[in-house]
Amino acid sequence: MPVCGSGKPRGKMPKNNWKRLGKTRRAGVLAPLFSIYSEDSAGIGDLDDLKLMIDWCKDSGLSTYQLLPMNEVGPTFCPYDAVSSFALEPMYISLKSLPEPDDKAAKSRFSALRKKFPAGGKNVNYGIKEAKRELLWQVFSGHKKGRKSAEFEKFLSENGYWINDFAVFKVLKACHMGKPWYEWADGYRDRDPEMLAVFTEEHAPYIEFEKWMQWLAFKQFKAAKDHAASKGVFICGDLPILTSKDSADVWAHREFFKLDFLAGAPPDMYCAKGQRWSMPTYDWGAIADDGYRYLREKLRYAENFYDMIRIDHVVGLFRIWSIPANSPAENEGLNGFFDPADENVWAQHAKTILSVMLEGTSILFCAEDLGMIPKDCPATLKEFEIPGNEVQRWVKDWAVTHDFLAPKDYRLFSVAMLSTHDTTNWAAWWENEAGTIDGALFDRRTANRGIDCENAKRRLFDPALSKHGRLRWLKSVVSADVLAEALGKRREEIADFIEMYQNTYLEKEKLWERFGLKGPMREKCDSSIIAAALSFTLGSRSIFCIELLNDYLYMDSAFDGDPYEIRINKPGTVNKTNWSMVIPVSLDEMLKSGLKTNIKKMVVSADRV
Fold this sequence. Notes:
By secondary structure, the chain is an alpha/beta fold. It has helices at about 50-60, 105-115, 125-140, 150-160, 165-175, 185-190, 195-200, 205-230, 250, 285-290, 295-300, 315-320, 345-360, 375-385, 425-435, 440-450, 455-460, 480-485, 495-505, 505-515, 525-540, 550-555, 585-590, 595-605, and strands at about 25-30, 65, 235-240, 255-265, 275-280, 310, 320-325, 335-340, 365, 390, 415, 435-440, 470, 545-550.
């Protein structure tokens, strides 16, 4: 793959992107909109609920609120596999803020929808999406005069790059019974101009409906952003590195994508087979030839809603793990390779793209720099003053002491956190994963070496503390020599096993000591342990500390049962619980809770705002 762009990277960039937030120590919270709700919500959190969440942030002393991607999702409801990297998800439209007459019929329909899809519960019932869409169609069809306005026309004009393609794509998809665009009739699949013109004329009301919903979502999200600004709270968005193969983006700009390949992640100690995602990789050369307009337009639209944006999987801008689309699905990420293949061009590749992004917007960027990191990634992010991620459970000296770093040793330009949306919450990590290794990875490595796996497990791991596919080391495994004996191999033959052992053995005990907690180490997480963990990251050197709402709520004992079951997403899996987790308390209850006061004290104590 050619390096995107033809010139040399610009080197140090202007720091205007810091102007809006300033280089101030800030604290924040991450809560997906689908996970929060109010007493007025119908089935799922809506754009009006953002205002309540912002009020909670203000009362809690948190100046930053982070969302997951808000783009319209497909059948898996994964926000990182969206049907458009521009269009907002219409199921987030607030019904109580519709710009329509407040008539009895409308009130009755809204009330019926709330009864059928009550907010709350353990997981979102995504039937709300189609039900809300039907109700919005009734409103749209019943007020033909009211939906035409100069404001609406201005919105369409300013977003001409993407909105017509998106609206036509959505209606075409409906007419093809939901089939992906690459299975449509040839003329529609290949965007025959005459066929599309006829189709657009014949389906004009439905196409206008799609645009109208985007206008509503735009206005409501913008209103939430304005409310945040009035409260001194900054909103952080999320820029997915990829988009769904079955998306308006790929259908409209096929030349920007390598459709014979799927992106993913290589195998590591947490995912033995790596990961295989359903999204195609980019042809950055083609995007560069178009002056990066596709990327610039995304950022221009995002500026309406966000002060700050997390660049998802920023390492993919250096190189992406590329898997042949015809590789067997059960192999997940095993058959992939890095694209570009030449490691010597990775830094320039990323710097060129990041330069375009920084020049194209006033938004401040942070970056998800987790997993296998190219050697030039940390230096590049530091040069561009883009904060990376410091996830407490992984912030270690992996090579020498194998111990957790002290808060003072975190990177200055970073976002500290206990957990991410792709990990277990911190309580679940503490109870189930700390001090363990991945069982599937152990099985695979022992099988490849001809080691008696079951015998090794009996000698190395504590069955009473091994669960959810994780293996907890026995305390009697006091050295690498004991490990080698149990595996029946010489030390030089098992360097990878020794590395796993050194970085996980007595992990909980080490962290207990690092937190300065008193008494014997406790296996089960409680409010005092999670408070110590939160204080640890809040007190770090990192300029930002943004925690999952789940982790804050564990301080208030809001969750029941095994915390391992409470998570936003389990990478590499597709199931009904991914992207549907709902917090156990409403925003109305959160605003009345004393937890806000406790959080504010912790934030002030950490010298953050």
